[in-house]
Design goal:
Layout (H helix, E strand, L loop, with lengths): L1 E7 L4 E2 L8 E7 L4 E8 L5 H10 L4 E4 L4 H9 L3 E4 L4 E2 H13 L4 H10 L1
Parallel strand pairs: 1-5, 5-6
Antiparallel strand pairs: 1-3, 2-7, 3-4
Length: 118
C-alpha cells in the first residue's frame, strides 16, 4: 500500500502548483484497491505547512504541475517523491496507471517504498 497526494484546484485533475494548490487529495492504493483517504484544504498554508501536512499524512508520492526548487528539496527531505507534470492530468487516469504499475513492474523508487513499509 502506498499513499499519494495530488495537488488540485478542482478535485478532478492534477492541475495545481505546490505553492498555490487549493487542495491535496490523498489516496492510498495497492494492486486491488484505491481509496480516497482525505482532502486537505491547503490554500492558507505556506511551504512548511504544506510539507508538514503531507508528511503527517504519511504520503509517499506527491503529484503537481509545478514545484519550486526549495519546496522540492523540503519534500524530498521529508521522504516524499515529487512528480511534476507540465500540464493538467486526470487524477483518475493517474491512479489507474499507478495501480497497473504496482501490479506489473514498479519502478525502483516504488519498490523501495514497499520494502520500507513491509
Amino acid at each position: 500500500m502506498i499513499k499519494v497526494a495530488f495537488l488540485t484546484n478542482d478535485l478532478k485533475n492534477i492541475d495545481a502548483h505546490f505553492g498555490s494548490a487549493d487542495y491535496a487529495a490523498i489516496y492510498s492504493l495497492d494492486i486491488n484497491e484505491v481509496k480516497l483517504l482525505k482532502v486537505v484544504n491547503g490554500s492558507s498554508e505556506r511551504t512548511d505547512g504544506r510539507v508538514k501536512i503531507l508528511k503527517d499524512a504519511d504520503v509517499n508520492i506527491l503529484y503537481c504541475v509545478e514545484i519550486g526548487p526549495a519546496a522540492a528539496a523540503k519534500i524530498v527531505n521529508s521522504g516524499i517523491f515529487p512528480i511534476k507534470y507540465k500540464q493538467s492530468v486526470s487524477i483518475e487516469s493517474e491512479l489507474i496507471k499507478l495501480q497497473s504499475m504496482l501490479a506489473s513492474n514498479p519502478p525502483p523508487f516504488i519498490k523501495k517504498m514497499q520494502i520500507q513499509r513491509a
